[in-house]
Amino acid sequence: MQLTQIIRQRVVVRNLILATSIFFVSLVLGTLIGQNTVEGLMSQFEAILEPLVSTGKLSILLVLLIFVNNAIKALGLVFLGILLGLPPVLFIGVNGFILGGLGSALESVKGWTYVMASFVPHGVIEIPVVLLATALGLTVGTESLKWLVRRESRLKLQLSDSLKVYFRWILPGLAVAAIIEVFVTPLLIALVDVG
After folding, report:
1. Fewer CB atoms inside 10 Å of the end CB: C or N, the chain?
2. Is residue 96 a contact partner of residue 22, using CB atoms and an 8 Å limit?
3. In angstroms, rounded to a whole number, what is the distance separating the alpha carbons of residues 178 and 170?
4. Rounded Cα–Cα distance for residues 130 and 32 (Å)
5. Are the CB atoms for 16 and 132 separated by under 8 Å?
6. Cα 126–Cα 64–Cα 161 angle in degrees, nearest 5
7. What pLDDT, in 10s, does the model give residues 111-145?
């Protein structure tokens, strides 16, 4: 099956819509109530990045760190979908909530222009490919559930097809997003950060 045929499967499209809906609902919830939760996470994240800053090679290491982190998580979304699709749902929900809370926390200090400059440049690529990985994980979960209840299942085929999409579209998309996040996003933030 060609990659475009895999993506166009009705169940994948339906799961992409479901993943996107969960993400946006959790994003709104995070924006409304998640600000305090995210502030603690931000301080932990800064502690993790501190050793990279001291090396003087922050940019290259940060690109690799972001890319590898996102690549592992996206691959996990596909594989862990076998657990009835629950891990992908939880992952996309929690990440939407955190992103909403982070956006709300930044907005209260720096304004919406700063928030948009911080998220949009790389997020316009990263979020859709992570949603696609989530949809593929949900599709694997659907096949897993069919297998579990002894219905006709294409679990191995779906997992194989999902991995083809992962290597062809998701992985390159995450690489581009990581590069943009490290080299372009900070420039845009500097342009809008006047305070």
Report:
1. C
2. yes
3. 12
4. 23
5. yes
6. 50
7. 999 999 999 999 999 999 999 999 999 999 999 99
Q: How far out from the chain centre does Cα 57 lie?
A: 25
Q: What pLDDT digit, counting tens, does each position of 24-70 carry?
A: 999 999 999 877 777 676 776 666 555 555 555 568 888 999 999 99
What is the phi/psi pair of residue 194, to 5°? -100, 0
| Inter-axis angle of helices 35-55 and 86-110, nearest 10 | 90
Contact 21, 187 (CB under 8 A): no
Residue matched to tokens 């993943």: 19
Instruction: Quote the tokens at residue 21.
Output: 């809906």
Query: Which residues are CB-contacts of 3 (< 8 A; sequence separation ≥ 6)?
Result: 164, 165, 168, 169
